[in-house]
Amino acid sequence: MYDSKTSKICVVMPTYNNDGTLRDVVERVLKFCNDVIVVNDGCTDTSDEILASFGEKITVVDYGRNRGKGYALKKGFEKAIELGFDFVITLDSDGQHYPEDIPLFINALEQHPYALIIGSRNLNEENMPGKNTFANKFSNFWFKIQTGVNLPDTQTGYRLYPLKNLPNLNLLTSRYEAELELLVGAAWRGVDLIPIKINVFYPKAEERVTHFRPFWDFLRISVLNTFLCILAVFYGLPSRLIRRARRQHD
């Protein structure tokens, strides 16, 4: 097991009504990291009881009602900072991500200190929803426009964040597209973005639990991308040019 107390790394896991997979995911994560923060994003199923059964093995953040994944990540990051951690690994509680891949992030961090490590999925994986593949390609395109950086998977939730290099946590959005906002903000700050290959599991369509709402979520992503493109002109691009000039001067 990786000694997360020495390295000041913890896992932050937002959860919303995934009681069918939550216990298994938490148990598997605990095999690789001693410090786990689960953010209960207003669950209305049996997730409360499942989390309580772990006792002091995990830290639970609970604020009552569903506020969205972006808000859950923010509260998880704030708790990690409060507890003195320097790095956070985020993964989903729906069983899509393999906790067994946590060492891959640790190895990448050792090679790229203070980088943001991004788990990249195989978008041709069996049972991968077609809308996910399209949304990711759409997001990758606009991310390149906004930052000048090519990434194979800008929508993955399996990441390692360097807390000291994160952009302002007063996010524009509280929903799941906040992960894109965090990625763009980190790129504008000059944080190294390192993609690594990860495993992913997608159950058959009839077995899948998803909170993705195609029309409204895609609309919010489009609005966010429009706003980020405007910010890129007035902030992102100038920041990149200033950093480049400084490197050339040094």
Write a compact overview of the structure shown.
The protein is of the alpha/beta class. It has eight helices and seven strands; from the N terminus they run H-E-H-E-H-E-H-E-H-E-H-E-H-E-H. The chain is globular, with a radius of gyration of 18 Å.
Describe this protein's structure.
- The chain has a single domain, classed as Spore Coat Polysaccharide Biosynthesis Protein SpsA, Chain A (Alpha-Beta Complex), CATH 3.90.550.
- It has about 250 residues and is α/β, with parallel strands linked by helices.
- Helix 2 links the parallel strand 1 and strand 2.
- It has a 7-stranded mixed sheet with strand order 3-2-1-4-6-5-7, with helices on both faces.
- About 45% of the residues lie in helices and about 15% in strands.
Measured distance between first and last alpha carbons? 41 Å
Order of helices and strands: HEHEHEHEHEHEHEH
Mean pLDDT: 87
Structural class: alpha/beta
How many structural domains are formed by the residues? 1
Work out the helicity level.
Answer: 40-55%
CATH topology description = Spore Coat Polysaccharide Biosynthesis Protein SpsA, Chain A
* Beta-strand residue fraction: 5-15%
Shape from CA axes? Answer: globular
The CATH homologous superfamily is called Spore Coat Polysaccharide Biosynthesis Protein SpsA, Chain A
Residue runs with pLDDT of under 50 for 5 or more positions? none
- The second-level CATH architecture is Alpha-Beta Complex
Strand order of the largest sheet: 3-2-1-4-6-5-7
At the first level of CATH, what is the class?
Alpha Beta
Radius of gyration using CA atoms only: 18 Å
Number of strands: 7
Largest sheet: 7 strands, mixed
**Count of helical stretches:** 8
